Protein backbone atom coordinates (compact mmCIF):
# COMPACT_ATOMS: atom_id res chain seq x y z
CA UNK A 1 0.00 0.00 0.00
CA UNK A 2 1.47 3.27 -1.08
CA UNK A 3 1.99 5.74 1.65
CA UNK A 4 -0.06 8.87 1.26
CA UNK A 5 2.16 11.87 0.87
CA UNK A 6 1.20 14.74 3.06
CA UNK A 7 1.77 18.18 1.62
CA UNK A 8 2.30 20.95 4.07
CA UNK A 9 1.05 24.35 2.97
CA UNK A 10 3.72 27.00 2.64
CA UNK A 11 4.00 29.13 5.70
CA UNK A 12 3.03 32.71 5.18
CA UNK A 13 5.67 35.26 6.05
CA UNK A 14 4.90 37.51 8.96
CA UNK A 15 5.46 41.27 9.13
CA UNK A 16 9.14 40.83 10.04
CA UNK A 17 9.76 38.46 7.14
CA UNK A 18 7.99 40.75 4.70
CA UNK A 19 9.96 43.74 5.98
CA UNK A 20 13.27 41.89 5.59
CA UNK A 21 12.29 40.79 2.09
CA UNK A 22 11.37 44.37 1.14
CA UNK A 23 14.67 45.71 2.48
CA UNK A 24 16.64 43.05 0.58
CA UNK A 25 14.75 43.86 -2.62
CA UNK A 26 15.50 47.57 -2.22
CA UNK A 27 19.19 46.85 -1.61
CA UNK A 28 19.26 44.57 -4.64
CA UNK A 29 17.58 47.24 -6.74
CA UNK A 30 20.12 49.86 -5.68
CA UNK A 31 23.10 47.55 -6.29
CA UNK A 32 21.76 46.61 -9.71
CA UNK A 33 21.25 50.27 -10.63
CA UNK A 34 24.77 51.18 -9.45
CA UNK A 35 26.27 48.30 -11.43
CA UNK A 36 24.37 49.28 -14.58
CA UNK A 37 25.44 52.92 -14.18
CA UNK A 38 29.12 51.93 -14.12
CA UNK A 39 28.77 49.47 -17.02
CA UNK A 40 26.91 51.99 -19.20
CA UNK A 41 29.55 54.64 -18.46
CA UNK A 42 32.38 52.25 -19.38
CA UNK A 43 30.66 51.29 -22.64
CA UNK A 44 30.13 54.96 -23.46
CA UNK A 45 33.78 55.76 -22.74
CA UNK A 46 34.92 52.95 -25.01
CA UNK A 47 32.64 53.61 -27.99
CA UNK A 48 30.55 56.78 -27.83
CA UNK A 49 31.81 59.69 -25.71
CA UNK A 50 34.03 62.35 -27.24
CA UNK A 51 35.41 63.54 -23.90
CA UNK A 52 38.86 62.18 -23.05
CA UNK A 53 39.26 59.72 -20.18
CA UNK A 54 36.87 60.10 -17.29
CA UNK A 55 35.91 63.70 -18.17
CA UNK A 56 32.34 62.71 -19.06
CA UNK A 57 31.74 61.04 -15.69
CA UNK A 58 33.30 63.96 -13.83
CA UNK A 59 31.14 66.44 -15.76
CA UNK A 60 27.99 64.44 -14.99
CA UNK A 61 28.84 64.32 -11.30
CA UNK A 62 29.33 68.09 -11.16
CA UNK A 63 26.05 68.67 -12.99
CA UNK A 64 24.11 66.40 -10.61
CA UNK A 65 25.67 68.12 -7.61
CA UNK A 66 24.57 71.38 -9.20
CA UNK A 67 20.97 70.13 -9.33
CA UNK A 68 21.12 69.26 -5.63
CA UNK A 69 22.70 72.64 -4.80
CA UNK A 70 20.05 74.37 -6.91
CA UNK A 71 17.36 72.74 -4.78
CA UNK A 72 19.19 73.88 -1.65
CA UNK A 73 19.56 77.52 -2.73
CA UNK A 74 16.23 77.86 -4.53
CA UNK A 75 13.99 75.87 -2.21
CA UNK A 76 11.64 77.14 0.46
CA UNK A 77 12.27 77.11 4.18
CA UNK A 78 10.21 73.96 4.72
CA UNK A 79 12.44 71.78 2.55
CA UNK A 80 15.74 73.53 3.21
CA UNK A 81 16.53 71.43 6.28
CA UNK A 82 15.88 68.12 4.51
CA UNK A 83 17.86 69.13 1.43
CA UNK A 84 20.76 70.39 3.54
CA UNK A 85 20.77 67.16 5.55
CA UNK A 86 20.72 65.06 2.37
CA UNK A 87 23.57 67.09 0.87
CA UNK A 88 25.68 66.67 4.00
CA UNK A 89 24.94 62.93 4.10
CA UNK A 90 26.01 62.48 0.48
CA UNK A 91 29.20 64.44 1.10
CA UNK A 92 30.01 62.42 4.22
CA UNK A 93 29.38 59.05 2.57
CA UNK A 94 31.34 59.99 -0.57
CA UNK A 95 34.31 61.20 1.47
CA UNK A 96 34.24 58.08 3.62
CA UNK A 97 34.05 55.67 0.67
CA UNK A 98 36.50 57.27 -1.72
CA UNK A 99 38.64 59.91 0.04
CA UNK A 100 39.08 58.83 3.66
CA UNK A 101 39.43 55.20 2.60
CA UNK A 102 42.34 56.18 0.37
CA UNK A 103 40.91 54.69 -2.83
CA UNK A 104 41.51 57.78 -4.96
CA UNK A 105 45.00 58.40 -3.54
CA UNK A 106 45.95 54.76 -4.00
CA UNK A 107 44.75 54.74 -7.60
CA UNK A 108 46.86 57.78 -8.35
CA UNK A 109 49.90 56.30 -6.61
CA UNK A 110 49.60 52.79 -7.99
CA UNK A 111 49.50 53.85 -11.64
CA UNK A 112 53.13 55.07 -11.44
CA UNK A 113 55.76 52.34 -11.73
CA UNK A 114 58.95 52.91 -9.72
CA UNK A 115 62.35 51.25 -10.39
CA UNK A 116 62.21 49.47 -7.01
CA UNK A 117 59.04 47.56 -7.86
CA UNK A 118 59.26 43.85 -8.52
CA UNK A 119 57.96 42.24 -11.69
CA UNK A 120 54.57 41.29 -10.26
CA UNK A 121 54.03 44.66 -8.60
CA UNK A 122 55.13 46.51 -11.73
CA UNK A 123 52.76 44.40 -13.85
CA UNK A 124 49.86 45.20 -11.50
CA UNK A 125 50.70 48.91 -11.64
CA UNK A 126 50.83 48.85 -15.44
CA UNK A 127 47.46 47.10 -15.47
CA UNK A 128 45.97 49.75 -13.16
CA UNK A 129 47.52 52.51 -15.27
CA UNK A 130 45.92 51.05 -18.37
CA UNK A 131 42.46 51.08 -16.78
CA UNK A 132 42.96 54.14 -14.58
CA UNK A 133 40.45 56.26 -16.49
CA UNK A 134 37.81 53.55 -16.19
CA UNK A 135 38.40 53.14 -12.46
CA UNK A 136 38.19 56.90 -11.86
CA UNK A 137 35.05 57.04 -14.00
CA UNK A 138 33.52 54.37 -11.76
CA UNK A 139 34.35 56.50 -8.70
CA UNK A 140 32.68 59.58 -10.20
CA UNK A 141 29.67 57.57 -11.36
CA UNK A 142 29.18 56.11 -7.87
CA UNK A 143 29.36 59.60 -6.34
CA UNK A 144 26.78 60.74 -8.90
CA UNK A 145 24.73 57.67 -7.94
CA UNK A 146 24.70 58.82 -4.31
CA UNK A 147 23.61 62.32 -5.36
CA UNK A 148 20.79 60.97 -7.50
CA UNK A 149 19.69 58.64 -4.72
CA UNK A 150 19.46 61.63 -2.36
CA UNK A 151 17.38 63.49 -4.95
CA UNK A 152 15.04 60.50 -5.26
CA UNK A 153 14.58 60.31 -1.50
CA UNK A 154 13.77 64.02 -1.45
CA UNK A 155 11.25 63.50 -4.26
CA UNK A 156 9.23 60.83 -2.44
CA UNK A 157 6.74 63.42 -1.09
CA UNK A 158 5.83 64.13 -4.73
CA UNK A 159 4.96 60.46 -5.26
CA UNK A 160 2.98 60.44 -2.01
CA UNK A 161 1.10 63.61 -3.02
CA UNK A 162 0.18 62.29 -6.46
CA UNK A 163 -0.77 58.97 -4.85
CA UNK A 164 -3.14 60.69 -2.42
CA UNK A 165 -4.71 62.68 -5.24
CA UNK A 166 -5.10 59.51 -7.32
CA UNK A 167 -6.69 57.57 -4.46
CA UNK A 168 -9.07 60.44 -3.65
CA UNK A 169 -10.17 60.78 -7.26
CA UNK A 170 -10.49 57.02 -7.64
CA UNK A 171 -12.66 56.69 -4.53
CA UNK A 172 -14.91 59.45 -5.84
CA UNK A 173 -15.28 57.63 -9.16
CA UNK A 174 -15.97 54.39 -7.28
CA UNK A 175 -18.78 56.03 -5.28
CA UNK A 176 -20.28 57.47 -8.47
CA UNK A 177 -20.11 54.04 -10.09
CA UNK A 178 -21.71 52.41 -7.06
CA UNK A 179 -24.62 54.86 -6.88
CA UNK A 180 -25.15 55.07 -10.64
CA UNK A 181 -25.09 51.33 -11.23
CA UNK A 182 -21.85 51.22 -13.21
CA UNK A 183 -19.99 48.00 -13.97
CA UNK A 184 -16.86 47.01 -12.09
CA UNK A 185 -13.82 45.38 -13.65
CA UNK A 186 -11.67 43.11 -11.53
CA UNK A 187 -9.33 42.63 -14.49
CA UNK A 188 -8.51 46.35 -14.71
CA UNK A 189 -8.22 46.59 -10.92
CA UNK A 190 -5.66 43.79 -10.67
CA UNK A 191 -3.61 45.11 -13.58
CA UNK A 192 -3.51 48.63 -12.11
CA UNK A 193 -2.55 47.17 -8.72
CA UNK A 194 0.17 45.10 -10.37
CA UNK A 195 1.67 48.15 -12.09
CA UNK A 196 1.74 50.58 -9.13
CA UNK A 197 4.93 49.37 -7.42
CA UNK A 198 6.83 48.61 -10.67
CA UNK A 199 6.27 52.24 -11.66
CA UNK A 200 8.17 53.33 -8.54
CA UNK A 201 10.93 50.79 -9.16
CA UNK A 202 11.25 51.81 -12.82
CA UNK A 203 11.59 55.48 -11.86
CA UNK A 204 14.49 54.63 -9.53
CA UNK A 205 16.22 52.29 -12.00
CA UNK A 206 15.87 54.68 -14.94
CA UNK A 207 17.03 57.78 -13.08
CA UNK A 208 19.92 56.03 -11.34
CA UNK A 209 21.16 54.31 -14.51
CA UNK A 210 20.66 56.96 -17.19
CA UNK A 211 24.07 57.68 -18.77
CA UNK A 212 23.73 61.45 -19.16
CA UNK A 213 22.90 64.35 -16.90
CA UNK A 214 19.19 65.10 -16.83
CA UNK A 215 17.16 67.36 -14.62
CA UNK A 216 15.30 65.20 -12.08
CA UNK A 217 11.99 66.87 -12.89
CA UNK A 218 11.98 65.19 -16.32
CA UNK A 219 12.01 61.77 -14.63
CA UNK A 220 10.28 62.28 -11.30
CA UNK A 221 7.25 64.27 -12.48
CA UNK A 222 6.06 61.86 -15.24
CA UNK A 223 6.52 58.80 -13.03
CA UNK A 224 4.79 60.48 -10.08
CA UNK A 225 1.83 61.27 -12.35
CA UNK A 226 1.84 57.70 -13.66
CA UNK A 227 1.95 56.36 -10.09
CA UNK A 228 -1.05 58.51 -9.14
CA UNK A 229 -2.87 57.35 -12.28
CA UNK A 230 -2.31 53.69 -11.37
CA UNK A 231 -3.72 54.27 -7.88
CA UNK A 232 -6.66 56.20 -9.32
CA UNK A 233 -7.56 53.38 -11.71
CA UNK A 234 -7.03 50.78 -8.98
CA UNK A 235 -9.31 52.47 -6.46
CA UNK A 236 -11.93 53.44 -9.05
CA UNK A 237 -12.25 49.81 -10.17
CA UNK A 238 -12.31 48.42 -6.63
CA UNK A 239 -15.42 46.33 -6.01
CA UNK A 240 -18.50 48.35 -5.16
CA UNK A 241 -19.46 46.42 -2.03
CA UNK A 242 -17.13 44.99 0.62
Automatic annotation (TrEMBL):
<dbReference type="InterPro" id="IPR022266">
    <property type="entry name" value="DtrJ-like"/>
</dbReference>
<feature type="transmembrane region" description="Helical">
    <location>
        <begin position="22"/>
        <end position="49"/>
    </location>
</feature>
<feature type="transmembrane region" description="Helical">
    <location>
        <begin position="134"/>
        <end position="167"/>
    </location>
</feature>
<keyword id="KW-1133">Transmembrane helix</keyword>
<keyword id="KW-0472">Membrane</keyword>
<dbReference type="Pfam" id="PF14348">
    <property type="entry name" value="DtrJ-like"/>
</dbReference>
<feature type="transmembrane region" description="Helical">
    <location>
        <begin position="214"/>
        <end position="234"/>
    </location>
</feature>
<keyword id="KW-0812">Transmembrane</keyword>
<feature type="transmembrane region" description="Helical">
    <location>
        <begin position="188"/>
        <end position="208"/>
    </location>
</feature>
<protein>
    <recommendedName>
        <fullName>Integrating conjugative element membrane protein</fullName>
    </recommendedName>
</protein>
